[in-house]
Design a protein that fits this description.
Layout (H helix, E strand, L loop, with lengths): L2 E10 L8 E9 L5 E11 L3 H19 L8 H25 L5 E2 L1 E8 L6 E9 L3 E6 L4 E5 L8 H20 L11 E6 L4 E7 L24 E6 L7 H7 L25 H21 L9 E12 L6 E12 L5 E7 L5 E2 L12 E6 L12 E7 L1 H4 L4 H10 L3 H18 L9 E10 L21
């Protein structure tokens, strides 16, 4: 018996009409006879170049890396580890190419990978790799339940804020030990301030400069007690740290033995070996690359120096001062004349590209994987997995409950895509837009046993749907 794979896809431009989102469906044959299939959604921003490069090159780069590793028969757990490493490296390599060429566009990436046996041409392993806020959702159509869902890599997530802080901490230690060549000309201290300029506890944080002050962490929350958004700014070297406030603000509430209560090993950026070196190597290249390419654009971009990084609302109402828009990670530069030059802001805490944005926004992927049933046992099992990959143009408009309902009650994957797109457009128009609120791209992939058509849950049913396979 066999596992059958069917898919559907849809994409449409948002209100700006640019459509920087991209979709990809690729299949490659490895030298050891195995087949690897890719289904990907890339949500581009600041241009389409980063997303298009991922479409053209991701599968090729992964195949090249795997062909050098899969030359021998490997245990399944070792094979999965190598596959993750290959995908992670491919993302970093694409990012490096973009930045080295002076391309400042960025993109998210959410990819479903299916690994096939070389003899039966049947998939036995499924994996989702993602960077950014394009979400992957895995739905068990037989049970009527969601069993996997990726998290958003954005600064509104506490875990992502902690990872940003871990990266800033790592880079500060590297600067102190001389392991990174950065554009630091003087020691600076960064403190959190509310938008009206009043200091929130005089608590210092890790920034893009060579800091000599004690470090505390309050980046776990982007609001102070009054609800005002917090951001990073600069303060003179002599500013004192309020340790009592630091203790209350720190996500770990640690003792301030050495003035550095936050241990990056406690909330690791990732368990991937070599990540720290990748971050430092990327930072050094960004400093040089951005200077070279930005100098060529204007005389204003001479002797550029990274000034600060902040996390806060995209803008504020000029009348009320209240935050407007999503929370973003911003970067700023200054030239030798002291002129402030705004850098890029991103709504994501991880992305591919975006070399003009914060250097803490890195192309490090997260992974989730699961095994598919052996093909020799699919004769009588009820197996039907449906995977949805979609950009935030869908998730920011439709409630998750509605999305899951369509996944559960629409048999054909292309029909399900069309229904989701139709609902997203209607909801956007109802909210005052003339078309889709944002660029919207999605792919649905069905993996099921025997090609049988399960009985979908009745509309509005509260019980799980059942499946009869003949």
């Amino acid at each position: 018996m066999a596992l059958y794979i069917r898919d559907g896809a849809a994409i449409a431009p948002g209100r700006k009409g640019k459509n920087e989102d991209r979709l990809a469906k690729k299949s490659i044959r490895l030298r050891n006879g195995k087949k690897l299939q890719f289904f990907s959604v890339f949500d581009g921003h600041g241009g389409k170049e980063a997303a298009e490069k991922c479409v053209d090159e991701l599968h090729v780069r992964v195949a090249d890396l795997l062909n050098s590793s899969f030359s021998t028969i490997l245990e399944k757990d070792e094979e999965e580890k190598i596959l993750k490493s290959a995908v992670a490296k491919a993302f970093w390599d694409i990012d490096d190419d973009l930045g080295s060429q002076g391309i400042t566009a960025g993109t998210t990436a959410t990819t479903l990978l299916l690994l096939f046996n070389e003899d039966s041409n049947q998939p036995y392993k499924a994996m989702i790799a993602w960077i950014g806020d394009s979400i992957g959702l895995c739905y068990d159509v037989v049970q009527g339940t969601r069993f996997n869902m990726t998290t958003r890599h954005n600064p509104e997530q506490d875990s992502e804020m902690q990872k940003l802080q871990a990266i800033w901490k790592l880079r500060k230690k590297a600067q102190r030990s001389g392991r990174a060549l950065l554009s630091t000309t003087s020691s600076q201290k960064k403190i959190f301030e509310t938008l009206d300029g009043s200091c929130s506890g005089q608590t210092s944080a890790i920034g893009d400069r060579n800091l000599s002050c004690d470090d505390t962490t309050i980046m776990n929350d982007t609001k102070d007690q009054s609800g005002k958004m917090l951001s990073l700014s600069e303060e003179d070297e002599g500013t004192q740290i309020n340790n009592d406030t630091a203790k209350r603000s720190s996500p770990h509430n640690s003792d301030l033995d050495d003035g550095s209560p936050w241990d990056p090993d406690f909330v690791p950026i990732s368990d991937r070996p070599g990540l720290a070196e990748d971050i430092l190597h990327r930072e050094a290249k960004i400093t040089q690359s951005m200077r070279n390419f930005m100098r060529a654009q204007s005389p204003d971009f001479q002797e550029l120096e990274r000034q600060d990084t902040d996390v806060g609302p995209r803008s504020c109402c000029p009348l009320t001062g209240k935050p407007i828009g999503p929370i973003v990670v911003r970067a700023a530069w200054s030239n030798r004349k002291g002129k402030h030059i705004a850098g890029a802001s991103t709504t994501v805490s991880r992305s591919i590209g975006d070399w003009d944005a914060s250097r803490a926004v890195i192309p490090e992927a997260d992974f989730v994987s699961w095994n598919l049933p052996p093909t020799e046992n699919t004769d009588h099992i009820q197996f039907y997995h449906r995977v949805l990959l979609a950009s935030d143009g869908l998730w920011d408009v439709l409630p998750q409950k509605r999305i899951e309902f369509i996944l559960a009650t629409t048999l054909d994957p292309q029909d399900a895509c069309d229904k989701l797109m139709d609902d997203a457009k209607k909801k956007s128009i109802k909210s005052g837009f003339r078309t889709y609120k944002d660029d919207t791209a999605l792919i649905i992939v069905d993996i099921k046993a025997n090609g049988a058509l399960p009985k979908m849950a009745a509309a509005g049913a509260s019980t799980p749907c059942t499946c009869n396979i003949s």
